[in-house]
Model the fold of this input.
Amino acid sequence: MRKLKTLELDRLSPNEFKSIEKTPIVLILDNVRSGLNVGSAFRTADAFALQSILLCGITATPPHREILKTAIGASATVDWTYFERVEEAVAHCKELGMSVFAIEQTDHSVALDEFVLPENKNGFALVFGNEVNGVSDVILPEIDGAIEIRQFGTKHSLNVSVSLGILVWEFWRQMRGGDF
Done:
């Protein structure tokens, strides 16, 4: 066994990435205060060729020093839009016919390991909230559901970038029916 060299990874150029068909998933970052978490979202969106990222409220926007540090160029390839209020971003996705799910612990959330992706040819939007306060309460009546990641320790809290990676992977996996 040996590690692959960079030239062996079949990486797309930024122009090639812009022209490929995107995975119909939109990430909505609701007042995410850490630019490092935002940069990580861009990097994950690039890795899975996601449709776009919607940055809301106090969420940093490119070119921000911390975003650039963790995105390592993905903020230049992944489409993004800024919305002053998360309600506007959710409404935008609903108008496009997308199913919108918050990643949040609620009295009606479904555990990710029990979640079955509904059929929706228009795609999905995933809302990730503030590191302290979670997703904004105002959007809860507007979304199609809440998903949570089962946790067994004392914190019952994962970093936004970790949660984002887990959710994107699972949506991507289910959208392809387990076929890779």
